[in-house]
Design brief:
The structure holds 2 protein chains of 2 kinds. Chain A is built from 18 helices and 20 strands. By secondary structure, chain A is of the alpha+beta class. In chain A, strand 2 and strand 3 form a beta hairpin. In chain A, helix 11 runs antiparallel to helix 13, helix 16 packs antiparallel against helix 17 and helix 17 packs antiparallel against helix 18. Chain B is mostly helical. Chain B folds into 2 domains: 72 residues, no CATH class; 248 residues, MetI-like fold (Orthogonal Bundle), CATH 1.10.3720. In chain B, helix 6 crosses helix 9 and helix 8 packs across helix 9. In chain B, 41% of the residues are buried. Classes of the chains: A alpha+beta, B mainly alpha.
């Protein structure tokens, strides 16, 4: 059979070609019939009470005793004794504890656990279980015990009845209510699960709990595909109860590329995303079907200066603070998706005076200070950052410094190589002069933020990467330990510290004050952004509008 | 034959010992403190020291090596810094995903390469040959990450024909793990919807990954076939009046197989450890993506285990190729 007169056909169509074409067409038709299956996820997202959140990093280490990286995956599963109220950073509410009390000098804190709470493994969460959980965290050899700062937890915690326990810190801890609401090390885990899966005193059940979390929170982990997605389902016995608008399941997908996350939001494949690039954040306002919710953040991006090397003279460091135009950076590079930093402290920290700012951009003043300090401009300075993090920031700094005759070499390292240099103990001459990084505190207090970063008593391994050792600043930081942040004297002390760190003897060039920003479909509500819960969401508060 | 296997086994074990030692040394000289990475950037010096102690990193290097070999012999590759799980668990989870992707892409690549390579050789210098040569040059020169992004954009976002990434739709429950191959396990579970979903997710990354293989095989098959088709025994076969099928497939193609199989084997080994970009772009939870994460986080336990696994794969593939030679060419005898 041939079709000699088909329009456009230059050659006769043979029987074989005809059969091949027919088979191809039929295959294509058959293929298109498969398409509804390929789009299955989108349908289920919209209608089945499933919430899909796309984020950049992987959900890992779901043991609250050891996770110090990113608490996002822990939040749905675990409850703390207290939790910060809404967007407030200085007020907590009893959470797993029904009541929270303390004695007059704040040395003893008493918690009454909610009645009838059970862990996801069905065991009872009472005072004894909470005590065991705390003791486990505090005594864990690779855990976050230092965040509790509790000596001898076995004896320091006493149980007075089934639901009541008291913690005696042996020193005043006026802000323990806020500390206990922190992201790191304060989630209460099932001691039964930890004990029954423990491989010994070095493990205490961590190997198991990292992928099989057992808490009391609103959601239970259904499945964890490492590096891919974490699927959570409702805890039917959640003590807080449920209402109709809440989600049956929450799927957290790891999607490293910002543009892909954006595309997923636009197409409806994701309900909420953590936007990455400033351009992507700006675009979130372009379509009525999705948008963004913004809030505060306690995260600061900065350039840390090596204070024990070529930048040991405070005039030199002041000069470099004058040489970075943070205002232009925030406006033109971050596209106003971040704020101008007030100084080295996040703006949300108690006692912070936003009027104490880093030196303004002034290359002439920078030039003058370098000359006054006798800084040798023939030497090449080194700016180090980890891959993909701060190329543009480095290039900007490089360009500004070149205008005053300073040569800056940019060194991009792998994350591991960067951390090695950043926290390492190499001598000053073997270390870079500048590091780009970001930081946020565990809880809202100037001491918590400042000690590891700026105290002369802290090492580079603690976070004091520049080995900053201003004696006055060190004394001021020490005096702030557990200090009453409403006390005018303490506020004055804190402001003096800010003045030193931001203006007189700066350890950092503050670059930007980050914001908490989530992109979401317009039918999602309940996104509460607390500046202390950096990059984390209270998923129990989320609802889909009907 | 038995002697041959004994010799190969001894060589293999020696090579594996060498790989173990080499990867151990390389992993230790890589920049980055594993204890800091495991503890996280927000850990203080005291906690990092505790992690270092727990990981045995304060021991001498020889002591660490012997401890490592002892653990490996017991099937314990240590804990991954990237996923915080035992490395063996990770490999058991990720390796089948890569294997499924690589085998499927090889199936596509081999089919295209052999079919079009053979046709191009038979119709040398014709339009099919010219088109094939141009396409294969393109397939070899285009970077896979670029093709992957383009394919994703076109088929997933613009046309919406295929899912853009992953192994299954978001939140879909995987079938019970029998083989680790999603399409087989979903069939074994009798779940046709899941099978279709798994297949649709597999197509795009597999096709992208198959392009260099198909292009390489096309050129290899074509060149080898051209050489063989000018040989005397082919002329004799034609003179004897054999059918084109017998001449091209039974005589010519079979003789073209040994060098092509060698290439295929090497390519297979390369894909097992090298499908990084495709896995990253398509978010395929396989060994390539795991390897990339392991390297960037100096996850030396994972790096050593992956190197060992890939080395074993290469060795097994080489053995399989040697054995295949004897089947394809009776003149080859293993000694």
């Amino acid at each position: 059979m041939t079709f000699k007169h088909l329009p456009g056909a230059s050659r006769p169509l043979s029987r074989r070609s005809f059969l091949a074409s027919t088979a191809t067409t039929l295959s294509a038709l058959g293929w298109s019939s498969l398409m509804p299956s390929a789009a299955m996820a989108q349908d289920s997202n919209g209608n089945s009470g499933t919430l899909v959140i796309a984020v950049a990093a992987a959900i890992e280490d779901l043991d609250p005793a050891t996770n110090l990286n990113w608490a996002f995956g822990l939040f749905p599963v675990y409850d703390n004794l207290t939790r910060l109220k809404g967007t407030l950073v200085d007020e907590y509410q009893p959470w797993l504890a029904e009541t929270v009390e303390h004695n007059a000098d704040h040395t003893v804190w008493t918690f009454k656990i909610r009645d009838g709470v059970t862990f996801h493994d069905g065991t009872v969460c009472d005072a004894a279980a909470v005590k065991k959980s705390i003791v486990r965290t505090v005594t864990h050899p690779t855990g976050l015990g230092f965040n509790w700062a509790l000596e001898d937890p076995e004896n320091a915690i006493t149980i007075s009845d089934d639901l009541t326990l008291a913690i005696n810190f042996g020193e005043p801890r006026p802000y323990f209510g806020l500390e206990a609401a922190g992201q790191y090390g304060f989630g209460i885990v099932s001691p039964t699960a930890a004990e029954s899966h423990s491989k010994g005193p070095d493990d205490l059940g961590s190997d198991y709990l990292r992928s099989n979390p057992v808490g009391t929170g609103p959601y239970m982990l259904e499945r964890l595909d490492p590096g891919q997605e974490a699927v959570y389902k409702r805890n039917p016995d959640f003590w807080g109860g449920w209402d109709d608008g809440q989600f049956e399941r929450i799927i957290i997908k790891t999607v490293p590329v910002s543009a892909t996350r954006q595309q997923m939001l636009a197409s409806g494949e994701a309900d909420i995303i953590l936007p990455g690039e400033p351009e992507d954040i700006i675009q979130l306002g372009d379509d009525p079907s999705y948008g963004k919710t913004e809030g505060g953040s306690s995260e600061i991006s900065y350039i840390a200066m090596a204070c024990d090397g070529r930048l040991s003279d405070s005039r030199v460091r002041r000069a470099f603070c004058h040489a970075f135009d943070a205002a232009a950076y925030v406006h033109d590079v971050k596209l106003d998706t971040a704020d101008l930093p007030a100084g080295v402290f996040p703006i949300s920290i108690a006692t912070i005076n936003p009027e104490i700012k880093k030196p303004a951009f002034d290359l002439a003043e920078a030039d003058r200070l370098l000359t006054e300090a006798g800084f040798d401009r023939s030497q090449e300075l080194v700016f180090e950052f980890f891959e993909g993090d701060a190329t543009l920031e480095g290039e900007l700094f490089q360009a500004w410094l070149s205008e005053i005759g300073v040569t800056l070499k940019l060194v991009e390292k792998s994350y591991s190589g960067f951390l090695d240099d950043y926290f390492g103990d190499a001598p000053a001459e073997d270390r870079p002069d500048f590091f780009f990084f970001s930081w946020w505190p565990n809880w809202n207090h100037p001491f918590d933020y400042a000690w590891g970063l700026f105290s002369g008593e802290a090492s580079s391994g603690d976070g004091n990467v520049g080995r900053y050792a201003n004696p006055e600043a060190t004394d001021l930081i020490s005096s702030l330990y557990q200090a009453d942040v409403t006390d005018p004297q303490v506020i004055q002390t804190s402001e003096r510290l800010q003045q030193i760190l931001a203006v007189e003897d700066p350890p950092w060039v503050p670059v930007s004050q980050e914001r908490g920003i989530w992109g979401h479909r317009s039918n999602i509500e309940g996104i509460v952004i607390n500046p202390m819960y950096v990059l984390t969401l209270d998923m129990n508060a989320l609802r889909r509008k009907t | 034959m038995r002697r041959y296997f004994a010799k190969r086994l001894a060589t293999t074990l020696l090579m594996l010992a060498g790989v173990l030692l080499l990867t151990f040394i390389l992993a230790r000289v890589l920049p980055g403190d594993p204890a800091r990475l495991l503890a996280g950037p927000r850990a203080n010096a005291e906690q990092v020291e505790a992690v270092k102690e727990a990981m045995g990193l304060n021991e001498s290097l020889p002591a660490q090596f012997f401890q490592y070999v002892h653990q490996v012999l017991q099937g314990d590759f240590g804990q991954s810094i990237s996923t915080r799980r035992p490395v063996l668990d990770d490999i058991v989870q990720f390796f089948p995903a890569t294997l499924e992707l690589v085998l499927f892409s090889l199936l596509i690549g081999v089919t295209l390469g052999f079919v079009f390579g053979t046709i191009a050789a038979i119709r040398a210098n014709g339009i099919t040959d010219a088109t094939g040569r141009f396409t294969s040059a393109l397939g070899l020169s285009l970077p896979d990450f670029w093709v992957a992004l383009l394919a994703q954009l076109l088929f997933a976002w613009v046309l919406g024909w295929l899912p853009f990434a992953g192994r299954l739709p978001t939140g879909a429950t995987p079938p019970p793990d029998v083989t680790g191959f999603m399409i087989i396990d979903s069939l074994l579970a009798g779940d046709m919807a899941l099978f279709t979903a798994a297949l649709t997710h597999l197509i795009l990354p597999a096709v992208v990954l198959s392009i260099p293989t198909a292009a390489l095989l096309f050129r290899m098959v074509r060149a080898t076939m051209l050489g063989i088709l000018s040989k005397d025994f082919i002329r004799t076969a034609r003179a004897k009046g054999l059918s084109p099928y017998r001449i091209y497939v039974k005589h010519a193609l079979r003789n073209a197989l040994p060098p092509t199989i060698t290439l295929l084997g090497l390519n297979f080994g390369f894909l097992i450890g090298g499908a990084v970009f495709v896995e990253l772009i398509f978010q395929w939870p396989g060994l390539g993506r795991y390897t990339a994460a392991a390297i960037s986080s100096t996850d030396y336990n994972a790096i050593m285990a992956i190197t060992l696994i890939v080395s074993i794969c290469y060795m097994l593939i080489n053995l399989a190729i040697d054995l295949a030679y004897t089947g394809l060419d009776p003149r080859i005898v293993l000694k």
